[in-house]
Amino acid sequence: MAPAHFAFSAAFMLGLTGLAFHRTHLLSALLCLEGMMLSLYIGLSLWALHLDNNSFSTLPMVFLALSACGASAGLSLLVATVRAHGTDQLQNLNLLQC
């Protein structure tokens, strides 16, 4: 396995592990999701470079733009949650009461 592919796989698995085991705060969950999205961006960039095809070169940029939109939506939900509940701890949030 190439070092770049190993780094991509390790970054994705590290983000997935952090999301699965470290879910005390909403901000940490969002950061793990953002790390996973950035590792997928790196994977798509490596795939486009590996194919040497110009039609796939815009795909990583579109994915990065969608990832930025998702991150801004997640941060706006974080701000709304903190204003409504006073904390971002996931244990104190009840979706039935929102």
TrEMBL record:
Top enzyme class of this protein? translocase
Under which EC number(s) is this enzyme classified?
A: 7.1.1.2
Q: Where in the cell is it found?
A: Mitochondrion inner membrane; Mitochondrion membrane
GO CC annotation terms, alphabetical: mitochondrial inner membrane; NADH dehydrogenase complex; respiratory chain complex; transmembrane transporter complex
What residue intervals traverse the membrane? 6-22, 29-49, 61-82
Q: In terms of one coarse class, where is the protein primarily found?
A: mitochondrion
Q: Name one Pfam family in it.
A: Oxidored_q2
Family statement: Belongs to the complex I subunit 4L family.
Return the protein name. NADH-ubiquinone oxidoreductase chain 4L
Species of origin = Pictichromis paccagnellae
The beginning of the lineage is: Eukaryota, Metazoa, Chordata, Craniata, Vertebrata
